[in-house]
Automatic annotation (TrEMBL):
Transmembrane segments: none annotated. Residues 21-81 form the HTH tetR-type domain. InterPro entries: HTH-type_TetR-like_transc_reg, HTH_TetR. Residues 44-63 bind DNA. This is TetR/AcrR family transcriptional regulator. It holds the Pfam family TetR_N. Keywords: DNA-binding, Transcription, Transcription regulation. PROSITE patterns: HTH_TETR_2 (PS50977).
Length: 218
């Protein structure tokens, strides 16, 4: 009988974990939809819970309160998964670091930015708008912006190590060029307002960065 009880418990544990993950996904999907539709300030936790089909206590246990919801929506949009992933654990970052030439590194990253754009640009735009009215949103936006800038410095150093960058550009300048042109604002201008496809945007970034950053004989 003891073995039978253990077997049932072993069966239930993965099922509970799967149910918890499904609840978390539903909560984050609901939060993302409502934040984008109505803005952070106008969206209530009760509305998110209702959209997700759970009660408020379950929502809190699954993800957290409203600031944690916003953070998780932002982080999962960046990572493209159900959980936040540090940059070094993302597949495209690994492929960039494994690539040997600057052009290949740039092309991998530009394609990744284009792939992320449809899910990250709307969230970053909503976060920017909310930051002007909500201190918690402002702090989160500042944190994400600084982290992006730091990651761009790492990318610049990786490109520099190939020996193919222009000598008249510092790593800070390279990072700033990449940081500004891979922004949600730039994506929105070309894709949402000018009707470019994400794929065209990615090809444009690769061409732009190669022309601007690489030495003529690189």
């Amino acid at each position: 009988m003891g073995d039978d009880v253990k077997g049932r418990r072993g069966y239930r544990a993965p099922r509970r974990a799967e149910q918890a993950a499904g609840t978390r996904r539903a909560v984050l999907d609901a939060a993302r939809e409502l934040f984008l539709a109505h803005g952070y300030a106008a969206t209530t936790v009760a509305q998110i819970a209702e959209r997700a089909g759970v009660n408020v206590d379950t929502l809190y246990a699954s993800v957290g309160r409203k600031p944690e919801l916003l953070r998780e929506v932002v982080e999962t949009a960046i990572s493209g998964s159900d959980r936040a992933l540090p940059a070094e654990q993302r597949d495209y970052v690994r492929r960039i670091r494994e690539a040997t030439g600057a052009q290949m590194k740039i092309e991998i990253y530009a394609a990744a930015v284009a792939e992320m754009g449809p899910r990250t640009a709307p969230i970053f735009t909503a976060l920017r708008d909310a930051a002007g009215r909500d201190p918690q949103c402002a702090r989160l936006r500042t944190e994400v912006t600084r982290r992006r800038a730091g990651n761009m410095l790492l990318f610049a150093a990786d490109l520099r190590a190939t020996g193919e960058l222009r000598a008249d550009l510092t790593d800070d300048e390279v990072a700033d060029i990449v940081w500004s042109t891979n922004s949600a604002e730039y994506y929105v201008l070309l894709v949402h307002e000018r009707g470019w496809t994400p794929e065209r945007f990615g090809a444009h970034l690769a061409d732009l960065w190669c022309r601007m950053l690489l030495a003529p004989d690189g």
